[in-house]
Specification:
The protein is an alpha/beta fold. The protein has one domain: TIM Barrel. Strand 8, helix 7 and strand 9 form a beta-alpha-beta unit. The structure holds zinc ion.
Length: 305
């Protein structure tokens, strides 16, 4: 089977919503970020990406969620300021809808959520309702809020959910102690394909991820972290393979991405499910991001033709 070309998520387009944008969003008519989402979708379609994102244009992976989940705030620094609860309505559904309508038949749109563990570790605590940001009570409430989002996005038509948990490769948390909170979010996406993306070097945690996380696909960096391949090859789950770096403005030659992907195919065979950049591209100049996406598509075509 030919693996699908996808993105990890964020794309460098910016839009500062005006009064009318905010009003339309409040009325649930359309996303306040619709102009930026359409630009992000256009770039991905032009590069030949088959499973696209809405560009995650609302802010960074923490701000997006801190800005609307009850109990959190994104003012100044993202923080917990009260009891965390499932949101009554979701701006992410509007973003998803905008991307899906823009893409039409040309691509599928995946839903993307920052995982509860990474969120918890990135928030300041400004309430005494929770003892600490790594306390099970906060992780539980965050996972409930995110599970509600996963359910909504599935109902909206998303076939693929990706949960991002970069903190799992940092050594700051034990996978076994937090797996249940991540799994609660993944489980809520009933009947769809569930992906866990963990950035960086995963050699110390990969085995535990396979064993304890109920994801259908694990997505990792192989361009910036070629050492990941050996441990990934020891497992058995389908894999998303990063073939260009997201932390460097240098645009790789197609032949470089081909080499990364060929090694992955040799070691993983049929397990290669997705081909993508290592991580989100929001920190790169837009023209660089576009060209990197083209390189990913060309590499996939060359290796799997
Ligand atoms: Zn990443």
């Amino acid at each position: 089977m030919t693996p699908t070309v996808t993105v990890v998520g964020s794309h460098p387009v910016k839009h500062e919503p005006g009064f009318k944008d905010r009003l339309l969003e409040r009325l649930r008519r359309r996303s306040a970020y619709a102009p930026a989402i359409r630009e992000a979708v256009k770039d991905q379609l032009e590069a030949g990406i088959e499973l696209i994102s809405d560009g995650q244009v609302r802010g960074d992976m923490i701000e997006i969620f801190a800005s609307y989940i009850p109990g959190l705030t994104a003012e100044d620094e993202p923080a917990v300021i009260g009891r965390v609860e499932p949101p009554r309505s979701s701006p992410l559904v509007l973003d998803y809808r905008e991307a899906a309508e823009t893409a039409g038949e040309r691509a599928e749109v995946k839903a993307i959520l920052t995982g509860p563990v990474t969120l918890a570790h990135s928030l300041r605590l400004e309430t005494d309702l929770y003892p600490s940001t790594d306390h099970p009570s906060l992780l539980k409430d965050l996972s409930r809020a995110l599970a509600a989002e996963a359910r909504r996005l599935r109902e909206e038509g998303a076939e693929v959910l990706q949960v991002d948990e970069p903190v799992l490769s940092s050594g700051a948390v034990e996978v076994g102690r937090v797996a249940r909170y991540i799994n609660r979010v993944l489980r809520a996406f009933r009947g769809g394909t569930r992906v866990l993306h963990v950035c960086g070097k995963v050699t110390d945690v990969y085995e535990e991820l396979e064993e304890k996380i109920k994801a259908d696909v694990l997505d990792h960096e192989l361009a910036g972290h070629p050492e990941n391949l050996e441990v990934v090859a020891s497992g058995s789950k389908p894999i998303g393979v990063g073939v260009v770096r997201s932390d460097s403005e240098r645009v790789e030659k197609v032949s470089e991405a081909v080499r990364v992907l060929e090694r992955a195919r040799e070691e993983l065979g049929e397990r290669v499910e997705f081909v993508d950049p290592d991580c989100g591209l929001r920190k790169l100049p837009r023209r660089v991001a576009r060209r990197k996406l083209e390189v990913v598509r060309k590499a996939r075509d060359r290796v799997f033709s």
